[in-house]
Amino acid sequence: MRLVLVLALLAGPALAEVPEPDGYRGPPYSAPVPATLAGAVVIDNDAAARLHREGTAVFIDVMPRDVKPADLPKDTIWRDKPRDSIPGAIWLPNTGFEALSPEEEAYLRTGLEKATNGNKDQPIVIFCRAECWMSWNVAKRALEMGYTQVNWYPDGPEGWVTLPDNPPLTRVQPFE
Questions:
Q1: Range 36-66+82-176 classified under CATH 3.40.250.10
Q2: Which neighbouring-strand residues pair with 90?
Q3: What is the distance, to the nearest Å, from the Cα of residue 82 to the centroid of all Cα atoms in its chain?
């Protein structure tokens, strides 16, 4: 009995819920995320698959682009690492940081407007990858921009591929 009590006490902090921050989350972005996002619906793999099958929601991938190494020789050609994502997703990279430049914020706003045809009641599913705060930050921003049907999918492509009936991931290009 004592062993069970000791193990339970030791496991307690590991099982503690991650609280929602008041603002946006900064680095490290790859870390445990909250189970909630006030104003949004947090969806699991099954709900994401259902919304995808129904075709009722726009899927928005917010995984950032790779950073070009600063010490790369001048003559070296730099190519982004390819991004495989949920089929049909729109990739809005570099929009999930804690602070956005005016250009990054305009890019997010324009991308969401085009993805939803200007309909702020259009259901959207925002994701990055498992345990990534960037999708949480973008979903929070979408709510603040007035989007009313925000679904946050914290498992992203890693969760997507666990369901055998889901279509495979496909290559996406950054939204232009």
A1: yes
A2: 60
A3: 17
C-alpha–C-alpha distance, residues 150 and 123, integer Å? 6
- Percentage of the chain exceeding pLDDT 70: 91
d(CA 143, CA 130): 21
In sign, the C-alpha dihedral spanning 80, 85, 87, 93 is negative
Find out whether 40 and 34 touch, Cβ atoms under 8 Å. Answer: no
Q: From CA 21, how far away is CA 43, in angstroms rounded?
A: 19
Instruction: Please confirm whether the linkage preceding 28 is cis (ω < 30° from 0).
Output: yes
Say what the pTM is: 0.87
State the alpha helices, DSSP H only, in 24-165. Answer: 45-54, 102-115, 133-144, 156-160
Alpha-carbon distance of 80 to 95, in angstroms, equals: 16
Phi, psi of 156 (to 5 degrees): 50, -155
SS percent in the chain: helix, strand, coil, step 5: 30, 15, 55
pLDDT in tens, 109-130: 999 999 999 999 999 999 999 9
Q: Where are the domains of the chain?
A: 36-66+82-176
Instruction: Return the structure tokens found at 105.
Output: 């914020």
Phi first, then psi, for residue 172 (nearest 5°) are -125, 155
CB 121 within 8 A of CB 148: yes
